[in-house]
UniProtKB/TrEMBL annotation:
It comes from the Bacteria. This is Type II secretory pathway pseudopilin PulG. It comes from Azotobacter chroococcum.
Length: 154
């Protein structure tokens, strides 16, 4: 009877170890899926900023200019009829912060945004049209969402 208790105890220990391994594998899968979702969000949000910056530039009265701050994309007061180029300011889905890296034009205005994350992206190929240059980049901070490709910084 005493030997059976030891055998049951070993069986329970084995099950606990097996469940721990399964939970670790599930956690890794969840982490990878979560990172892929944040990457998709970053591509969508970055594209929204790039389109808003292009719209702001193209709807400039007189001399075409980019905004001095991202807030100007929310309510463009340069004309009589105020225009919204962006619905809201989005947080960086990778860092969770509202702070973005800013790509500046030659006159110091904002021509693009990028994540401040130094993490390595999972996605390295098959980017949406317009963002094919992101292939092979080793950090999220390298993904620069600019109004015009000529503004990308090397």
């Amino acid at each position: 009877m005493r030997g059976q208790r030891g055998f049951t105890y070993l069986g329970v220990l084995f099950l606990v170890a097996l469940m721990g391994g399964a939970l670790a594998a599930a956690g890794q899968l969840w982490s990878t899926a979560s990172q892929r979702a944040r990457e998709r969000d970053l591509l969508w949000i970055g594209n929204q900023y790039a389109m808003a910056l292009r719209s702001y530039y193209r709807h400039s009265p007189g001399i075409a200019q980019y905004p001095q701050s991202l807030e100007e994309l929310l309510e463009d007061r340069r004309q009589i009829k105020r225009q919204r180029h962006l619905r809201r300011l989005y947080a960086d889905p990778v860092t969770g912060s509202r702070e973005w890296g800013l790509v500046r034009s030659t006159d110091g205005r904002i021509a693009g945004v990028y994540s401040l994350s130094e993490r390595r992206p999972l996605k390295s190929a098959n980017f949406p049209p317009g963002w094919e240059d992101f292939e092979g980049m080793t950090r999220y901070a390298d993904w620069q969402f600019v109004a015009e490709p000529s503004f990308r910084q090397e």
